[in-house]
Amino acid sequence: MGRAIFNPTVTDYKTPPLPEDQLRKVSKKYDTNNDNLLSKEELKKAFEYLGSIIPGFRANRGLHHADANKDGYINEREMDELVKYAVQVGFGIKA
Fold first, then answer.
1. Range with the poorest average pLDDT among 15-19, 21-25, 61-65, 70-74
2. Which of 26, 65, 86, 87 is most buried as measured by Cβ atoms within 10 A of its Cβ?
3. Confidence check: pLDDT of 14 > 90
4. What would the pLDDT profile of 44-84 be if each residue is shown by its tens digit?
């Protein structure tokens, strides 16, 4: 039986679920080039912020779920579906 070792560099915490309006704000925050579109890489960074242990997978699934026109980006009209996805997988709460 071993001892548990405290490692302050490990961050295994997750942001508590956010209301839908806050999820929209987080998503817009990660639109780093301000083109009003979220790329897969921008989504990945948003899911990292939300505490996902598999942010690349979540970004890919979020795109698949919400990208209605299949252009590889989430636009303003598709944001509601992205937020629904984030709530569905536990990163948000319904308002």
1. 15-19
2. 86
3. no
4. 999 999 999 999 999 999 999 999 999 999 999 999 999 99
Amino acid identity for residue 16 in this structure: P
The Cβ of residue 46 has, within 10 Å, a number of other Cβ atoms equal to: 25
Residues recorded for the chain: 95
Q: How far apart are CA 69 and CA 56, in angstroms?
A: 21
CA angle 64/28/30 to nearest 5° reads 80
CA–CA separation, 6 vs 22, rounded Å?
32
Q: What are phi and psi of 38, to 5 degrees?
A: -105, 120
- Report how far residue 43's alpha carbon sits from residue 56's, in angstroms, rounded to the nearest whole number: 8
pLDDT at 95: 64
Question: E-strand spans in 1-95?
Answer: 18-19, 92-93
